[in-house]
Write a structure and sequence with these properties.
This is Small ribosomal subunit protein uS19. Keywords: Ribonucleoprotein, Ribosomal protein. It comes from Caldanaerobacter subterraneus. GO terms for molecular function: RNA binding; structural constituent of ribosome. The protein is mainly β. It has no helices and two strands. Strands 1-2 form a two-stranded antiparallel sheet. The relative contact order is 0.23.
Length: 52
């Protein structure tokens, strides 16, 4: 609880991510709030329109 309101740099494996500590984060580990994967979207499918 004494760390609430502070910003801590958490390493995600590539760089340090600033994480602002709130009251709801108490009891969790800091790594849960530093995303490690970047979602680039699902693979696009080649949709072709067929004329019947």
């Amino acid at each position: 609880p004494e760390m609430v309101g502070h910003t801590i740099a958490v390493h995600d494996g590539r760089k340090h991510v600033p994480v602002y500590i709130t009251e709801a984060m108490v009891g969790h580990k800091l790594g849960e709030f530093a995303p490690t994967r970047t979602f680039r979207g699902h693979a696009g499918s080649e949709k072709t329109t067929k004329v019947k």
